[in-house]
Every structure is written in structure tokens, then in C-alpha cells.
Predict the structure.
Amino acid sequence: MKRLKMLPLVLMALCAGFAFVACSDDDDEPKLTIDPVMGTAEWAAGEYVGTTLTDLDSRGMVMRIDTTYDQPVTLGLNEQKELVLTYHNWTDHTGMSYGDFRILPLETVATEEGVVVSGECTDSLYKAGVGYPATLKVAGTISGEPKVADLTMNIDLVVSPKMTLKFTLEYEGGER
């Protein structure tokens, strides 16, 4: 009789033991593998099309000024095999186009999630034939298969001796 009373307890213990069994690999996302012969700069290179959200900081007042859809961005290699970002046909908040701007060279570092890119340079951006000094910065990641660019670009544009406009471009796009 006592053995029959123990039977439900043993069955409950077995059920509880099997309830906590899991597979050996809980990793849902595959890790990115980059061919070591190719290198991180070559892997990240590509044509990307996506959306840009633009914020303008004018004298400490930040405002969202526009969203640009279907924006092409190129990550290409120069002659020294360095990664170069080209943002095509950048237009400021007044609607004036400065044409393409480039940020070079970019540093690349491989991580498990993707390739981290960063870089900074100075250049002149041209509006109506007049060059305006600018500091251009980029930081972000290229990840996934197919590749996705998630980048933040900063433009400090000197429009007069007393005024520098600070633009932040948040860009996300997929490879063409």
C-alpha cells in the first residue's frame, strides 16, 4: 500500500526532471564570419539604399528637419584599400544641395555582430559655388546577411565666423 502512494510522487519527480531539459545551443542569431583574406574593409564595402533622419542643432536648439527616403550611400575602397563613405547629394535644411560628400579613411573593426566603422575628416562643402568648411564624422556598424548599414554621421558646417550648424544624420539602409 505504501508503494502505491509513492508511485505518483515518483511520476511527478520524473515529469519535473524532464520539464527542464533544453537544447545545447540557445544561440538564435548566427555569428558573422568574415573571410580573413578579404578583410573587414572589403567585406563592409557596398552600395546601400536607405532612410536618413536629419537633426539640426542651431545654437543649442535641436530640431528634426527632414527624412530622406531611398538615399544611396556608398562604402568603397580607395587606392590604398581604405574604406571611404560617399553620401550622395546631401541637401541641407534650406533645400540647397551640397552634392556628394566623402568621409575618408574609415577604420574598421570586426565584432561578432558585424563590422564597426568610424572616421573623421575635414573638407569644404559647396553650396552655390561657395565652399564652406566642414568637419565630417561617421560611426556605426555594417552587419547581417544581406548587409545592413546603421550609421550616424555628424556634419559641423561653418556658415559664418559666428555660426556653425551641427547636423546629425541617422542612416539605416540595406545593400543593393
Remarks:
- The domain at 38-175 is CATH 2.40.128 (Lipocalin).
- The chain has two helices and eight strands.
- Helices lie at 2-19, 40-44.
- Residues 46 and 75 are 5 Å apart (CA to CA).
